[in-house]
Specification:
- The protein has 13 helices and twelve strands.
- It is elongated.
- Helix content is 56%, strand content 18%.
- The chain folds into two domains: 169 residues, no CATH class; 156 residues, no CATH class.
- With 364 residues, the chain is an alpha+beta fold.
Length: 364
């Protein structure tokens, strides 16, 4: 970096600090909001992929992500087991609980069947579900609420004891016996969908087609497509992220434009002296752009550090939220910050390069 550009940056420390802070806030905002939205989606997808099932079979036109209720009869399980290629069909009655001020999906499961499709992995404390009104929760929810085996959680007007705590990384954070959910919440022999395990990975697509052909009212959704289902359902998130990044880029552009234009006006006489000493247009332009890149680079570094700090604060204050900061996003944010700075400095740089040396020397 040219020493003149660095000297210019250090000459107005207050203004430089404000400019660096503005760039840093733009970088931090884009990184944290992107990390929060994408991190939450990726966490849900990874948890669903940990189910050792191949298909989610639900009512046609029913959304596995958005819709709620119990549209299917439990008796559909026996019909699914008769389809060639189906090894197991585990019924799920999904419901919603509000715990710690946040909504959670809870699965009513048949413990024996659910173990055949991966289950809730390892029980860390307590025991597995039986048939009473009781729940197993994952460790992340237990840690967030300081819940332990033997505690009672109130949800939907029910007081439900915690009988087990299982590993994190399962499709939902709360499990109850299917029979208890049907008795106390569903009040009927109904379920939400079925996890289906096929006889082999090579027959998954064929089995899905066979299920849909045999039962036109059902849809067999491969779990490998769950990320696409989520991103399609929440298509607006992509536009939201693009909008946030665009705003951050505009903030950087306007900040650098104002900063560098002010600097050029203040240094009119200095620019005249440089031109009188033989400095050409490219030299003047290069110095202005170098100063801009220095400010933006500092802003990017501070923005990344702020993002890490905000991520830690969010995950400490809201332990059930996930903020994901990937290297690719850091690189994109850094590139956008510097590009915005360079674009913002182009006009001030062209103004400085076009200054007439005689007029600049007489500027007061």
């Amino acid at each position: 970096m040219p020493s003149l550009a660095l000297a210019n940056v250090l000459q107005r420390k207050g203004r430089t600090a404000i400019s660096v802070a503005a760039v840093a806030v733009g970088v931090m905002t884009s990184l944290v909001l992107t990390g929060l939205t994408q991190g939450s989606i990726h966490e849900v997808v990874e948890r669903m992929r940990n189910v050792d099932a191949d298909l989610a079979v639900h009512a046609r036109g029913w959304s596995l992500v958005l819709d709620s209720g119990w549209p299917l009869p439990l008796s559909a399980r026996e019909k699914l087991l008769a389809v060639p290629g189906v090894a197991y069909a585990s019924p799920i009655a999904a419901t919603r609980f509000v715990i710690l001020g946040q909504g959670h999906t809870a699965y009513g499961i048949d413990p024996a069947d659910f173990r055949k499709v991966g289950g809730y992995r390892k029980i860390l404390a307590g025991r597995e579900l039986e048939s009473n009104l009781e729940m197993v929760i994952d460790k992340r929810l237990a840690d967030a609420g300081h819940f332990k085996v033997g505690d009672t959680i109130e949800a939907q007007g029910l007081r439900i004891p915690v009988v087990g705590i299982c590993e994190t990384g399962i499709p939902v954070r709360i499990f109850l016996p299917l029979a208890a959910v049907q008795e106390h919440i569903v009040q009927g022999d109904r379920v939400t969908f079925f996890f289906v395990k096929c006889t082999g990975p090579e027959v998954v697509d064929e089995t899905a087609r066979a299920i849909e052909a045999a039962f036109p009212s059902l849809q067999a959704q491969p779990l490998s497509n769950y990320y696409r289902v989520l991103t399609t359902t929440f298509r607006g998130l992509h536009q939201f992220i693009v909008a946030v990044i665009s705003v951050a880029l505009v903030i950087t552009f306007l900040t650098i434009l104002l900063t560098m234009y002010t600097a050029v006006v203040e240094r009119t006489r200095e620019i005249g002296i440089l031109k009188a000493m033989g400095a050409g247009r490219w030299f003047i332009t290069k110095e202005v752009l170098a100063e801009s890149v220095a400010i933006c680079s500092a802003g990017v570094v501070v923005g990344v550090l702020l993002s890490l700090a905000v991520k830690a604060v969010i995950e400490w204050g809201f332990p059930l939220l996930t903020v994901e900061l990937r290297l690719r996003w850091l690189v994109v944010a850094a590139a956008l910050g510097i590009v915005g700075g360079v674009l913002g400095a182009l006009y001030p740089a062209s103004v400085a390069a076009r200054r007439d040396a005689v007029e600049a020397l007489s500027y007061e």
